[in-house]
Amino acid sequence: MATAVRVGDRAPDFELTAADGRRVKLSDFHGKKNVVLYFYPASETPGCTIQACAFRDAYSTFQELGAEVIGISGDSVARQQGFQKNHQLPFLILSDPDNKVRQRYGASSLFGLFPGRVTYVIDKEGVVRYVFDSMLNFKAHVDEALKILRQL
Fold this sequence. Notes:
- This protein is α+β, with helices and mostly antiparallel strands.
- Helix content is 30%, strand content 26%.
- The strands form two sheets. It has a seven-stranded mixed sheet with strand order 2-1-5-4-3-8-9. A two-stranded antiparallel sheet has the order 6-7.
- A hairpin with a 5-residue loop joins strand 8 (118-122) and strand 9.
- The termini are far apart.
């Protein structure tokens, strides 16, 4: 696994396919919006659904703070489409089927077997301002990201 991306690092750019089929680059947001980028283990699992719905419920606040939310997992585009539709997720859900982006970020894994749950707050210049890593504290990812965005 790659060296973990840390606060102060430039966030590695990537291009992935969204649930709606379009290609999305992190650099598309540079100079325009802060980004809350979160990696989650798998769509439609209980913890990931709680986390995604917490981001959904706070999405208008993220937008008011000038931020875009992007969720990434190794699930297929088709599975991401279902997840986004089933839970009415208004933000981008991206497919990283070979986990290359996760690896570039050095996002943690549980016991080296299961993809971890890590959130990055990235400013408009593309610099990582905060990293939150917690497998079981699903809603704290939202709370922590909002706290940091309010300080930017």
